[in-house]
Amino acid sequence: MVHTRGVINLILFQHYFSMFLHKTETFTLMEQLANLAMKQLMDEKSGYNEDKELLKKLSINVPRKDSFLKRDLDARAHSEAYRLKFHLPNSEKLDGTSDATLWTPYNKHHVWGTLYLSQNFVCFDSRVANLVTLVIPLREVNLVEKVESQNIGSDLAMLITNKNASSHLFSNLKDREFVMRKISELLSRIKVNLTTSISSADSNLESSHHDEANNWNPQPALMTLFEFPNPTPPTIESEKESNWEKHFYIYGKGITMYRTVELAKIVLTGIPNGLRRELWPIFSGAMTDMSMAEPGLYRSLVNQAFSKSSTANDEIERDLHRSLPEHPAFQSEIGICALRRVLRAYACRNPQIGYCQAMNIVASVLLLFCTEEESFWLLAAVCEQMLPDYYNSRVVGALVDQGVLDDLTRTHLPELHAKLDDLGMIRMISLSWFLTIFLSVMHYESAVLVVDCFFYDGAKVIFQLALAILENNQDALLMCKDEGEAMQLLTNYLEGVTNDEISDNLISLHRDHEVIVKSISIQNLLYESYSKYGSLTASGIERMRLRHRLRVVQSLEDSVSRNVVRSVASFGFFTQDELQDLLALVREEQLCLRGSQPARIANIDPSTPHYEMFKVDFELFQSLFTGLSPWGHCSHAETLAARLFRLMDRDEDGFLNFRELVGALGMTSSADLTQRLKLLYTLHLPPLLSPSEIESPQQESDAEVAAEATDFFDSFEQQASCLGYDFMNSATSPDSAEGPSWRKMSVSSLHSLVLPSNPSRLHSKAMPCMAQPYFISLWKTLYDMFHAEPEDEETYHSIASIGTLLLQLGDVNKKFLGSRQASVDSLHSPSLKVETPSSPRFVSPPNLVLGEEDDNGNSSVNMESSESSGSNYALALPASPSTDEDEKTPNNNTRKKSDSPPQWSITLDQFLASALTGAPIVSFFERRINLIETIERFRKRRYVRLQSWPPEPTAASSPERKV
User: Fold this and answer.
1) Structural domain tally of the chain?
2) Cα-Cα end-to-end distance for the chain
3) Is residue 461 within 8 Å of residue 454, measured between CB atoms?
C-alpha cells in the first residue's frame, strides 16, 4: 500500500521515505506502477509492454524527457484517463492534445477546452466540467479544412465535416498546421483499414453462405416480437420520443452529438424503448467496437462456439432458464436461443472470462431492446470496459468495488457505516447489486432506467444509487439486530421500487402470492442519487479502486499461496515457511520474465489442482536449480538440471508445476541420504543420460545402451505385479501403434521408482543395473560435486577408494553372469524348472555378500566368500539380455537363447552400500540447506543480474522525433 505521506506498506514491513523534491509526481508514479503490477497478477496480458511506436511519434511543444520509460508511463496514464472520459475502446491511445475553442451552434458561443487526438477519434472536453463534450470518430469524417476568418474568437480555425453533413468548428488552435497534418495522417490510416475490412467482409459473407451446417438467423430486438407484460402507455412513450427528437434537433444526433447537461437531464427521465437500441451503443462505446470489428465476426464466433464443447457452455445451459423468466420472450425458444448464442459467442471471444453468473441476466435485458449482435457488443463493453474484472472466477472487480462502497459509506454515512461494518453487510449487498446492475434485485421495468444512466455515466451511477438506497433506509437499518433482518429489509425495499410510467405497476408486483408494498419510484430514487451524490466522478472512483485493488489482489494471492503450499506440504522436504518463500520466489521470477518477454504461463482451469496454477519452464528451473540446490554448484549443473527436468516432467509439456518443482529441489537438497543417492544414480541411467554425453569408446557405447534398456524392462516387468503397475498391456516398443512411446515409458518408470507413493525395498530391486560407461559418468559428477567443497585429501581418497570398490564389484558381476550363462546352457534336463518373468532370480555371486540392513534399509558390503560367511542374503540381479532366437528345452518349453556376452554392471544396492561407507559422501548428502537463507542470497544475485541487462531505448535514438 502506498500513502501520500511517503510510506510504503509491505506484507511484513513499512518503509518511510522523505525529502522529496517532487512529492506529488513521485506518489502518482508509485500508484501507477502498483496498479500495473496488480493488473498483471490478475491478467498476464495486462502487464507492462513498452510502446515502441512512441519512439517514432512526431511531437511539438513537448519538454524533452531523458527517460523513455518515464515518457511511456506518462503516455499510458494519459491514455487511460482519455479512454475513461470518453468511453473509448481499451486499445485507443492518446496521440496528443491542444487547447482550442469549440463553436456550439445551440447557444452560439465559443467554448474553451481541450482538443484530443487518437488513432480513431477527435474529441473535445470543455474546461468547465460537464458543459459540453464531443466525440468524433475519424471513420465519420469526410473533410478537414482551414477556415480563415477575421471574427474575434474564430481565428486559426479548423472545420471538420462529417459524412452525415454535420460540421464542427474549432478555433484558436496555436498549432493548427501541425494538428491538421496529424489528423490527415490518422485519416490515411483509417481509410486503409476500412478498405482491408471491406474486402475481408466479402470473403466472410461468401463462406457463411456456403456453410449450411451453421444455418441460423440472428434475432431482432425481442421487444418487436413479444409484448411487455406491463407496457408503457402509448401517450407517455410518444411524449418521451417527442422530447428526444427535439433534443436531437438542437444538439445533433448520433455519436457526434453535443453532449451537455441537458442530455444528462433527459437521460435521467428515461430513454424511450424504441431509442435504446440506438443510444445504448453510443453512450457505452459499444458502437465503436462494433464498427471497428471485422464484419461477420459475431456470426463467426457463434459458429465456433457451437462447434466445440466447453465448461462455459455447460454453465450457460444451466442458467438460461433463470434469465428474466417473468418476460414472455424468455419463456420461448426464440429468446432462449438468442441468449444462448450471445453468451456462447462472448465466451468464445474472451475465453479468459468465459461465462460468469449474472452475465445471463444482463444479456437478457440487452436482448429485449437491441439485436443479437448489438447485445453481444454491449455485453463486451460492460465486461471489459465499464465493469472491468467483474465477470471472472474471482470476481476481483466486484470485491474491489466492495471496498470502494465501504469507503464511500464511511465518508457520507458514518453512523450507518459503523452499523453495517458490525453486521458485515457491505460484502453481501454490493455483490448482488453491482454484478447485475440492480437487474436481479429490482423489477426489470424499473431497473432498465438504471441501465440507461449506467451506459451514459458509467460505474459511478451504481455507487450513487447504492448510497441513496442506504440513506433512505438508514433509520430502519440502525434498528436491525442481525444481518438477516437487514438484508430482508433492503430486499423488500428494492422489490418495491416501481416505475411511475407503467400503469397498475403496484398490482403486478407479487412474491409468494403477497402484494409487495411500493417503497419509492425509480425516477425519484435516481433523482435523489444524482442530487445528493452526483459529485462522485469516474476518475475519483478509479483512484479509490486502485487503493482497494492492492488489498484485494494481495488477499487473493495469499489465499492461493496457502492452498498451493498446503497441497505440496505432504512431501515433507520443506517447512511451510520455506514453501511460502519458494512460491514467492517463483512468482517474482515469472513477473521478471514477463517484463521482457511474452508471458509463458498457460491459462489454468479452476478445476485443476492448486499447484498447477504455478508452472516453470526449463529456463527458470535451471536458474532455480543452480541458485538453490547444492547440486547446482558443480560444472555439470546444467546437464544435471536438464536430466532432472525431464525426469520430473511427467506429462512432457515443457513445464514443471509447483509440486514437481518442490520434488526436484527437495530430493537434491532436503531429502534423506539414500533418496538423494538413489536420485543421483537414476540421473545417470538411460534414457536420461544419452550415449552422446558419455566420453567412452564408440564400440562399447551402443552395445551398453541396448543391453541396459533390455535389462531395465526385463527386471521392471518382473516387479510390475508387486509394485502395482500394469505394463504388460501397454505399448512399450517404438513400433507400437498405440500407447506411449518406449522412450516416454522408460522415463515415466524411472520417475515412479525414484519418487514412489509408497516407498519400499522392492523399488530398489526393480531399479535397472548401471553399465560401466554410465558409472564412470556418475563418478565424474560425484567428484565434481566435491570440487566446490573445501579441498580435503581424505575426501578425495574416500571417493577414489569407493570408486575402485565399485569397479571391482562390476567385474565380479560380469564374471558371475558369464559363469551362470555357461551353466544354464549346459544343463538341460526334464526336471529343469523354467523361470518366468514373475519369479526373479536371486543368486549369490562368489566373493560377495550383502550384510545386514540398517534402519534405513541400506545394505553393507562384505568382500568375502559367501560360503565362509554362512550368509543367507542374496544379490538381486536382472535377467540376462535376451535375443529373438528361441531354443527348446527337453520338455519342449520355449527358452530364449542369449548370444551376447555378459557386461560389466552394478546394482543400485551395491552403489548405496558402497557409498555409505564413505564418511565425506555421507556428510555431503546428509547436509540439509536452509532454503530461506538460500533464497535470500539468490534474490541478491538476481538484483545484480537485472542491473546488468541492456539499457532501454531512449527517445534520443529516434531520428524522426521532433521536439
Assistant:
1) 4
2) 37
3) yes
